[in-house]
Amino acid sequence: MSKYRLLGFFAHPDDESFGSGGMLAKYAREGVDVHVCIVTDGAAGSYAPDPTCPDAPRNMVAVRREELECACRVLGVQLHRLGYRDSGMEGSPENHHPESLYQADLDDVARDVLRLICEIKPQVIVAHDPTGGYFHPDHIRVNHAVNRAWQALTNPPAYPALLPDNCTPWLPDRLYYGVLPRSSLRWMLLFMRLTGKDPRHFGRNGDIDMTQVGVRDDKINVRLDIRAYRTIKQDAGACHCSQGGGPGRARGILGLLFRQAQRYELYMQAYPPNGRKHADLFAGLR
């Protein structure tokens, strides 16, 4: 096992590639022991493949599992799954499925998170931000579970029932959230309006309000240069054919804007709070 370890908690198969794929690929190739935990099975993902990808899947969960395994091999990371059911977007019928993350007891999810932290003992944890990036309830739920686990690690006597059996509490040095900067998004919003698209109804189902997405630039601590790993990130994303991640993804002007934005991945340091700006998630730790 490497001296340095990173553990990322992500809601769905594809979040590890489309969001933080460059970061994961970078640290895996720098000798860090990189782990990825996917919390849900992706069952509620609608099938919208790239034209170059295979036909409709026989079983969405099985296909997304295969896609996730492909992406993790490309990224060079170790995969863990928690197995909760995908909850779908806010207000969808999938929210009410009894096995969904939406319906799961938060302490149960936090206990699963703690089990992995105790086992892997990472110095750095990465998760979704409190808004879930684009307000997906599963992303928000993962953020809440990771924060509940963090509270249990910083004050174990206050959360005696959360720590799994045989778990020696391990407090990582840092917790980061992957974020989108509002400064970059404003160009996308302008382009959408100029081309007659309503940014308040973005996405396949028109249920994402892009005007509310992103964080202020002064809240961002790390601007991680991933240009050397961008191709690996794209190859990992291409594994997720069922979610439109194939070679034909992001064409035209929007594709150009997307590729320009992919030169860096941005992270906000949640713990310890009030962190300074730095260029490496492990800055000062190695």
Structural features, described:
The chain is of the alpha/beta class and 286 residues long. The protein has a 7-stranded mixed sheet with strand order 3-2-1-4-5-7-6, sandwiched between helices. Helices cover 34% and strands 15% of the residues. Helix 4 (106-120) packs across helix 6 (137-154). It has a single domain (5-271), classed as 3-Layer(aba) Sandwich (Rossmann fold).
Write the layout of secondary structure elements.
Elements: E1 5-10, H1 15-18, H2 21-29, E2 33-40, H3 60-75, E3 78-84, H4 106-120, E4 124-128, H5 132-135, H6 137-154, E5 174-179, H7 182-194, E6 222-225, H8 230-238, H9 252-261, E7 264-271
Parallel strand pairs: 1-2, 1-4, 2-3, 4-5
Antiparallel strand pairs: 5-7, 6-7
Helix pairs in contact: 3-8, 4-6
Protein traits:
Rossmann fold; alpha/beta; seven-stranded mixed sheet; 286 residues; 7 strands
Q: What's the pLDDT, averaged over the residues?
A: 87
Q: Could you say which overall geometry the principal axes of the C-alpha atoms support? A: globular
CATH superfamily: LmbE-like
Classified by CATH, the class is Alpha Beta
Output the helix-strand order: EHHEHEHEHHEHEHHE
Q: What is the tally of helical segments?
A: 9
Alpha carbon gyration radius: 18 Å
Which architecture name does CATH use? Answer: 3-Layer(aba) Sandwich
C-alpha end-to-end distance:
15 Å
| Total count of strands | 7
Helix vs. strand class: alpha/beta
Spans of at least 5 consecutive residues whose pLDDT stays below 50 are: none
Enter the CATH topology name.
Answer: Rossmann fold
Any idea how many domains?
A: 1
Helix content: 25-40%
Question: Quick one: biggest sheet?
Answer: 7 strands, mixed
What strand order characterises the main sheet? 3-2-1-4-5-7-6
Which percent range describes the beta-strand content?
A: 15-25%
